[in-house]
């Protein structure tokens, strides 16, 4: 049964994975104060190099994309060099690694870059305070002008080019979990009445501009995308969101991405407006390589692949608890259980 997981999987003509298990992107807030990846991070990722593909923790494309302390960046020479040390360590162990490109949009906080405003589609504020820094309350975002959006698209493309310079095998655009790109795709965060809002065609415009600019810069073979059709984190759901994703998925299908990845913490969650789980919904509209995630074990993930629910399995929390997840699963050894205390250090 588990054999499926350990067969090589060609993503395209450029990239082939040694197995079907991905390490999911996992924010750890352990970069240094200049948002440069550290040696401890290189060691942490290298210990997990047996994954078919590691997706890095979300990495900000520019200073005003930051929403949490010590999340790494990919926009200064020092950050690129820090990541080069990480990708070299992973490659030396035979692994492959994509960078997850991130801008948190309205979930950003100007405290981090000593700024005065936060850019987002619309002036709709998220409730609450920054995790781990509860004294920071989210602020009302400023709607990005078309000129600012164009600059953001350029900055995403530059971050993708920086990722390749840093030795990554490709990038995953973070279009999930309520951050900037996802904010355009949900009515709960997008109330624009210009060409970036109001209709499905307009709401997918900025996300597709980012995807296309990155494809043009580094090629579709090395470009992947993560999306959350079901709103569940930093986002209110709206039945009208369904039409946006119905429009987006066939557009993505045309673009020959390396893969599409669902952004969800628990893929057993059902969404009324998606008529079921996020992965079942996406599978109906998207026939190319799909990565499933969210509460799976090797066993349940492998049967989901065998049932054609998705093609590749991403593992998050169990990979935090078990650096040797792949070996343990191969040998049938017992896994250490994940608990939040493990987030305090990079094991
Ligand atoms: C996450 N997740 C996440 N997702 C993402 O797209 N970028 C990120 O940086 C993070 N960071 C992150 C940190 C921590 C501590 C957790 C627990 C989760 C979500 C993650 O990629 C994955 O979708 C979920 O963890 C569900 O998979 P598991 O853990 O059930 O295998
Ligand atoms: C991407 C940056 C996040 C930094 C911290 C990660 C959070 C860890 C776990 C939070 C779990 C939130 C899950 C929300 C699920 C809602 C289900 C209704």
Largest sheet: 8 strands, parallel, barrel
Bound molecules: ligand FNR, Octadecane
- Please report the first level of CATH classification, the CATH class: Alpha Beta
The CATH architecture comes to: Alpha-Beta Barrel
Strand percentage lies at: 15-25%
Strand adjacency order, main sheet: 3-4-5-10-11-12-13-14
Q: What name is given to the CATH topology?
A: TIM Barrel
End-to-end C-alpha gap: 30 Å
Helical coverage, percent range: 25-40%
- The unreliable regions are none
Number of domains: 1
Structural class: alpha/beta
Mean pLDDT across every amino acid position: 98
Q: Gyration radius, to the nearest Å?
A: 19 Å
Compressed to H and E, one letter per element, the order equals: EEEHEHEEEEEHEHHHEHEHEHEHH
Shape: globular
Individual helix count: 11
Question: How many β-strands, per DSSP?
Answer: 14
CATH superfamily: Aldolase class I
Protein name: Alkene reductase
Domain NADH:flavin oxidoreductase/NADH oxidase N-terminal: 5-334
GO cellular component, one term: cytosol
Cofactor: FMN
Structure commentary:
By secondary structure, this protein is of the alpha/beta class. The protein has one domain: Aldolase class I (TIM Barrel), CATH 3.20.20.70. The chain has 11 helices and 14 strands. Strands 3-4-5-10-11-12-13-14 form an 8-stranded parallel β-barrel, surrounded by 5 helices. A two-stranded antiparallel ribbon has the order 1-2. α1 runs parallel beside α2 and α3 runs parallel beside α6. The radius of gyration is 19 Å and the shape is globular. Bound molecules: ligand FNR and Octadecane (8K6). Octadecane binds next to loops.
């Amino acid at each position: 049964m588990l054999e499926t997981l350990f067969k090589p999987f060609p993503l395209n003509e450029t990239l082939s994975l040694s197995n079907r298990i991905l390490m999911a992107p996992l924010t750890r807030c352990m970069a240094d104060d200049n948002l440069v990846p550290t040696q401890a991070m290189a060691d942490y990722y290298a210990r997990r190099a047996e994954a078919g593909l590691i997706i890095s923790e979300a990495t900000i494309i520019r200073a005003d994309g930051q929403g949490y302390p010590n999340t790494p960046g990919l926009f200064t020479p020092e950050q690129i060099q820090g990541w080069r040390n990480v990708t070299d360590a992973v490659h030396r162990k035979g692994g492959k690694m994509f960078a997850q490109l991130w801008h948190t949009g309205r979930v950003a906080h100007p405290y981090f870059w000593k700024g005065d405003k936060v850019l987002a589609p619309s002036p709709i504020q998220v409730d609450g305070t920054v995790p781990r820094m509860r004294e920071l309350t989210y602020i009302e975002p400023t709607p990005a002008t078309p000129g600012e959006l164009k600059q953001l698209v350029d900055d995403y493309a530059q971050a993708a080019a920086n990722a390749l310079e840093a030795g990554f095998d490709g990038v995953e655009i973070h279009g999930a979990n309520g951050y900037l790109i996802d904010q355009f795709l949900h009515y709960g965060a997008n109330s624009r009445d210009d060409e970036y809002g109001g209709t499905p065609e307009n709401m997918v415009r900025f996300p597709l501009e980012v995807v296309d600019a990155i494809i043009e810069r580094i090629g579709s073979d090395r470009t992947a995308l993560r999306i959350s059709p079901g709103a569940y984190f930093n986002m209110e759901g709206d039945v009208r969101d369904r039409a946006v994703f119905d429009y987006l998925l066939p557009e993505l299908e045309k673009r020959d991405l390396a893969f599409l990845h669902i952004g969800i913490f628990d893929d057993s969650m059902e969404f009324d407006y998606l008529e079921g789980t996020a992965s079942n919904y996406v599978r109906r509209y998207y026939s190319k390589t799909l990565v499933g995630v969210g509460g799976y074990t090797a066993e349940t993930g492998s049967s989901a692949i065998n049932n054609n629910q998705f093609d590749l399995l991403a593992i998050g929390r169990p990979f935090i608890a078990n650096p040797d997840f792949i070996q343990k699963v191969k040998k049938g050894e017992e896994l250490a259980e994940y608990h939040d205390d493990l987030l305090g250090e990079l094991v």
